[in-house]
Write a structure and sequence with these properties.
Elements: H1 29-48, E1 52-53, E2 59-61, H2 62-69, H3 74-79, E3 82-84, E4 91-94, H4 99-108, E5 117-126, E6 138-147, H5 153-169, E7 176-181, H6 185-201, H7 208-216, H8 230-234, H9 245-260, E8 266-267, E9 279-286, E10 295-301, H10 305-308, E11 316-322, H11 323-332, E12 343-347, H12 352-371, E13 376-378, H13 385-394, E14 399-403, H14 405-410, E15 412-417, E16 425-428, H15 432-436
Parallel strand pairs: 1-5, 7-8, 12-13, 12-14
Antiparallel strand pairs: 2-4, 3-4, 5-6, 6-11, 7-9, 9-10, 10-11, 14-15, 15-16
Helix pairs in contact: 1-5, 5-9
The structure holds histidyl-adenosine monophosphate.
Length: 441
């Protein structure tokens, strides 16, 4: 009998693969090219208007969002990823949006002490919503804030910035602008009081849900879809009638500036936005191309938020673009982005010494082309000539640069166009840049 084999590796049961969290998506390299194209365009346009980058944490104290966004909003009531810090029990939340964090940072670092600031940030946000096309649990925003400006010029400037971005991206015809004024806090308080009085007078028509809302958030009753309540709702006091002259004048000026800039818009008196910090100007850019989740960017003025978060009173206006929705819209509009290299270098030879020389030449020509600013991929990990040529093609490169047996021996490179017709031709290894006409970019 043979002794047991103690050198064999123990067999491990195969583990089941793990999956990403529902509603939180990977962005794979093929898709990421379009993301980068969009982000590059956004960064460029933001710089044109003097906006500077600022970065804030993804995790903030829960109280920041409760106070900033509003206790009775959907986001705070239902959608936040909240957890306790294991060490001290502090309640923390993954940011559902960036405005509250930016204002916190502005207060903490006295950013608007001696001058207003135009800032932007980009990154993931988290909301526990029901995932569907255009709505995710981790999604990305480009968030733009003008801090310390009382407008209305800056309100219109931000809208013009977005209009320019849509033009740059070639989607200006796919989006429409909706604007509204929701007045100031005291206008809304007066409206709310009038609403409560009105609904109390019609309490018998209110359904169960609406009676509950009457105490906490009577405005939400206006969103009710209950057919039995519709005619009563239609007769309710309107916010627009409660808005005072100062706010109205502000809105008139925003509209005049948009007219001057040739930016088309629709005044939508039903546009209210889902976060509580807004006042005066609110706006959204919407598209019909994405189904139910058609708002690609939204924002407005929030002149009470600094105080709400414990700072001195200050004025501000901002917006955020939903990046996933923009990417869907760009893809729908046929906008492509490629991140293909200029060349893919294929190298191979039967004789190991010649193969080493071929690899050396491959690296040398690639580095020379990179010195001139070009993207070049050198085949790595071996593979025969045929499979290397397949990879060259899959990389999207314009040229395959081939260093085979013959070339390695004579210090040459064969250039093969991959995207256009043209014969393969050999040139001295050091002349590849000139031969491709890309030596000095
Ligand atoms: P928001 O309207 O909640 O505003 O979000 C802005 C944009 O983010 C939306 O128009 C949409 O494109 C995108 N978005 C929101 N939720 C999701 C989701 N679950 N999945 C995919 N995309 C989504 C804000 O967040 C404000 N902080 C904007 C702002 C900045 N207001 C003033 N300054």
């Amino acid at each position: 009998m043979n002794p047991p084999d103690t050198t064999a590796a123990p067999t491990r049961p195969r583990l089941s693969p793990l999956k990403a969290v529902r509603g939180m998506n990977d962005v794979l390299p093929d898709e990421a090219a379009l993301w980068q194209r969009f982000e590059d365009a956004a960064r460029r346009v933001l710089a044109m208007y003097g906006y500077r980058n600022l970065r804030v944490p993804i995790v903030e104290p829960t109280a920041l969002f409760v106070r900033g966004i509003g206790e009775h909003t959907d986001v705070v009531e239902k959608e936040m990823y909240t957890f306790e810090d294991r060490l001290n029990g502090e309640s923390l939340t993954l940011r559902p949006e960036a405005t509250a964090g930016i204002v916190r940072a502005a207060i903490e670092h006295n950013l608007t002490y001696d001058r207003p600031q135009r800032v932007w940030t980009a990154g993931p946000m988290f909301r526990h919503e029901r995932p569907q096309k255009g709505r995710y649990r981790q999604f990305h925003q480009i968030d733009v804030e003008a801090l310390g400006f009382d407008g209305p010029d800056v309100d219109a400037e931000q809208i013009a910035l977005l209009a320019r971005l849509w033009r740059e991206l070639g989607v200006a015809d796919s989006v429409r602008l909706h604007v509204n004024s929701i007045g100031d806090r005291h206008d809304r308080l007066a409206h709310r009081a009038a609403l409560v009085a009105y609904f109390r007078a019609h309490e018998s028509t209110l359904d169960e849900d609406s009676r509950r809302r009457l105490a906490v958030n009577p405005l939400r009753i206006l969103d009710s879809k209950n057919p039995a309540m519709q005619s009563m709702i239609e007769g309710a006091p309107r916010l627009v009638d409660a808005i005072r002259d100062e706010s109205l004048a502000h809105f008139e000026e925003v509209k005049r500036l948009l007219d001057d800039a040739g930016i088309g818009y629709r005044v939508d008196p039903r546009l209210v936005r889902g976060l509580d910090y807004y006042n005066r100007t609110v706006f959204e850019w919407v598209t019909d191309r994405l189904g139910a989740q058609g708002t690609v960017a939204g924002g407005g003025r929030y002149d009470d938020l600094f105080e709400q978060l414990g700072g001195k009173r200050d004025f501000a206006c901002g917006f955020a673009i939903g990046v996933e929705r923009m990417i869907l819209l760009l893809a729908d509009a046929g906008v492509h982005a490629a991140d293909a290299p200029l060349a893919y270098v294929v190298h191979d030879a039967k004789d190991p010494a010649v193969a080493r020389e071929a690899a050396r030449i491959a690296t040398r020509i690639a580095e020379r082309l990179r010195d001139a600013g070009h993207a070049v991929v050198v085949n790595a990990g071996g593979g025969g000539f045929k499979s290397q040529m397949k990879r060259a093609d899959a990389s999207g490169a314009r040229y395959a640069l081939i260093v085979g047996e013959e070339e390695a021996k004579s210090g040459a490179v064969a250039i093969k166009p991959l995207r256009e017709p043209g014969a393969q031709r050999a040139v001295p290894a050091d002349d590849v840049g000139e031969a491709l006409n890309v030596a000095d970019r």
